[in-house]
Design a protein that fits this description.
Elements (H helix, E strand, L loop, with lengths): L5 E3 L2 H24 L2 H23 L2 E4 L3 E5 L3 E6 L3 E6 L3 E5 L14 E3 L12 H20 L9 E4 L2 H20 L1
Antiparallel strand pairs: 1-2, 2-3, 3-4, 4-8, 5-6, 6-7
Helix pairs in contact: 1-2, 2-4
Length: 184
C-alpha cells in the first residue's frame, strides 16, 4: 500500500474552479490590454472574489483516506476519523461514515454519529453500471484501508481548525478596501 492518501473530491469543484479562473484571467488580461498595470491592481481583488468562493465552497472540501485515518476536510476544519472509530462506510448520494458508539463527530448538515461529505457518485440516471462499479471500487478501497489499519487503542475523532480560507478571504478583503481607497 502506498503512503499517498486517497483523495475523494467532487469533480464539479475542479470544473468550476478552472472555468472561473480562466474567465478571471481573460478579464484581467483585457484590463491590462485596454488599460494599465495599475488598473489591474485595482480590479484584480474584485475578480478574485468569485474564484475564492468556488475554491472555498466547491473545490476545497474533500475526503482523504490514508492508512491511519479518514480525514474529512470542510470549509473551516478538518475532522480526523481514525479507522478504529469507523464502524461502517456507506455510499449512495454521498459518503456516510458510521462511527462506533464511543466515537462521535458531526458534519455540516449531518446527523450525530455520521459524517456526510460531498457527493462521490453521479446523480444521473442512465449512466449505468459503470458508476455503481466505480462507487463499489471506492468503497472496497476504503474498507481495505480500514481493515489493514490494525489496532488503534484510544483513537478518537479529532477536529482541527483550518484558517487558510479565512486568511485568503481577509487578504482579498483588505485588497478590495485598498483598491477603493486608492481609486478615490
Amino acid at each position: 500500500m502506498t503512503d499517498k492518501p486517497l483523495v475523494l473530491r467532487a469533480p464539479a469543484g475542479l470544473f468550476w474552479l478552472v472555468g472561473v479562473a480562466v474567465v478571471v484571467v481573460l478579464l484581467l488580461v483585457d484590463v491590462v490590454a485596454r488599460g494599465s498595470w495599475s488598473q489591474l491592481l485595482l480590479v484584480a481583488p474584485w475578480t478574485l472574489i468569485p474564484v475564492w468562493f468556488v475554491w472555498a465552497f466547491l473545490y476545497l472540501p474533500h475526503i482523504a483516506a490514508d492508512r491511519d485515518a479518514l480525514h474529512v476536510r470542510n470549509l473551516f476544519r478538518t475532522i480526523r476519523l481514525p479507522w478504529a472509530s469507523v464502524d461502517d462506510l456507506v455510499m449512495r448520494w454521498q459518503l456516510e461514515v458510521h462511527l462506533t458508539p464511543d466515537a462521535r463527530a458531526a458534519g455540516f448538515g449531518g446527523r450525530k454519529g455520521i459524517v456526510e461529505a460531498w457527493s462521490l457518485t453521479k446523480r444521473w440516471r442512465g449512466i449505468g453500471r459503470a458508476r455503481i462499479d466505480e462507487t463499489e471500487q471506492t468503497l472496497d478501497v476504503l474498507r481495505g484501508m480500514k481493515a489493514s489499519a490494525g489496532r488503534q487503542p484510544g483513537a478518537l475523532p479529532s477536529a482541527t481548525l483550518s484558517p487558510a480560507p479565512l486568511v485568503v478571504a481577509a487578504v482579498i478583503a483588505v485588497w478590495c478596501v485598498a483598491s477603493v481607497l486608492l481609486a478615490g
